[in-house]
Amino acid sequence: SRDYRQIWRAQKLVAPRYSQRHDSCGGDPARGIQVLYGRQNFRRRKGSSGQDSQVGHEELRANQRDAKMLSNEDNELITRVGPSTPMGEVIRRYWIPALLSAEIPEPDCPPVKVKLLGESLVAFRDSSGRVGLLGELCAHRRASLFYGRNEECGLRCVYHGWKYDVDGNVLDTPAEPPDSNLKHKVRQKAYPCKELAGVVFTYMGPSDKMPLFPNYEWFRLPKQNIGVTKFLLECNYLQALEGDCDSAHAPFLHRGNRRGGLLTGRGLTVSYEIREKWFGVKAAAVRPVGSSEKH
User: Fold this and answer.
1) Cα–Cα distance between 33 and 256 in angstroms, integer?
2) CA torsion, points 87, 88, 93, 94, in degrees to nearest 10?
3) Which of 83, 130, 155, 247 falls between 20 and 30 A from 77, CA-CA?
4) How do 119-125 and 131-135 pair as beta strands?
5) Which helix (H) or strand (E) holds 6?
6) Cα–Cα distance measured from residue 106 to residue 219, given in angstroms and rounded to the nearest whole number
7) Is the CB of residue 205 less than 8 Å from the CB of residue 96?
8) pLDDT for position 254
9) Which residues are CB-contacts of 79 (< 8 A; sequence separation ≥ 6)?
C-alpha cells in the first residue's frame, strides 16, 4: 500500500545510503557506502583486508562539494512524526520513553501532561501503583483529563464524572441512567506502559506489531547506580540527533568559562568514522592527539 511505501522510504532516510558510483567501488555498489547527514557527506569502502578504510581527504572534500541536502519532500517525510505520518509510524513501532517515574511519584497523585509524537496525553498512577497513559481529552465532552481526579483505581473527569482505568476502559458514567450500557461501547485512547529504572516507557503502535521490551544492560543495575533526567529541547528530534552526532561544536560551545574541558587540548580538527552495525549505524569523531595518537 502507499502508506507502507512511505514508511519504507522514511526508514531508508535514517539508514546509510548505498553508493551507486561504480568508478569508486570497483563496479560493486555493495562495497561502497555513502552516508548523507546534514551538511556532512562521508564515504567509506572495504579495503583489501576486508576492514573499513576511510576515503582520502581530497576525495572526501570532493564528495562534500557534490553532496546534496535532503529535498523538501524528504525533509517533510523524515521530520513529521505526528499520527498517520510515515516517520511517526516508524517511531511508534518501538518502546519509547514517555516520562520519569518521579513525575508521578505515588498512587493517586495528580496526573501530568505528556506530549509525545504530536499527541496530547495524560499520565497518572492509580491506587494500585499502575501507570496509565491516556488521551488528554475525555471521550465524553472533550474536557481535559489533566484536571481529573485520580481516585479509587481510575482517573475521573471533572466535567461529568466519567472514570477511566489505565487501559482506557470506562469504569463509571454517573450521569447516565442505571440501565445504560454506554460505558461498554466507548473506550478512551490508552497506550500500554512499562516502568523500569526510573523511566516510564510506552508503545504507541499497532498492538499486533508490538515488539519485545528491550533488555538494556543499565536496566539491571542497582538503583543507586542509575541516574535519569529529562529536559526540553524546543526543536525537531532530527535537529537534536544531528547535534549529538556533531562533535565539532564541542570544544567551542561546551568548553566552559575557563576555556578548559576534555576536547580543547586534543585538537580542533575532527574526522568521522562511520560503520554499519546490526542495530544501525555507529559513528565516532576522531581527533589527533600529539603527532601519532588519536582520541
Assistant:
1) 37
2) 100
3) 247
4) antiparallel
5) helix 2-13
6) 21
7) no
8) 75
9) 87, 236, 237, 238
Q: CA 61 from chain center: how many Å? A: 31
- Report the C-alpha gap between 76 and 89 in whole angstroms: 14
Whole-angstrom distance, CA of residue 6 vs CA of residue 60: 31
For residue 237, which amino acid is it?
A: Y
Low-confidence ranges of the chain (pLDDT < 50): 16-55
Question: How far apart, in whole angstroms, are the C-alpha atoms of residue 181 and residue 186?
Answer: 10
CB 27 within 8 A of CB 20: no
Note the pLDDT of residue 35.
31
Taking the model in full, what pTM does it have? Answer: 0.74
CA distance 98 to 157: 22
Q: Could you give the angle at which helices 72-79 and 237-245 cross, rounded to 10 degrees? A: 100
Q: What angle do CA 170, 159, 164 make, to 5 degrees?
A: 20
Residues forming beta bridges with residue 125, ordered by sequence position:
131
Contact 134, 120 (CB under 8 A): no
Cell matching residue 295: 582520541
- Check residue 13 and give its pLDDT: 64
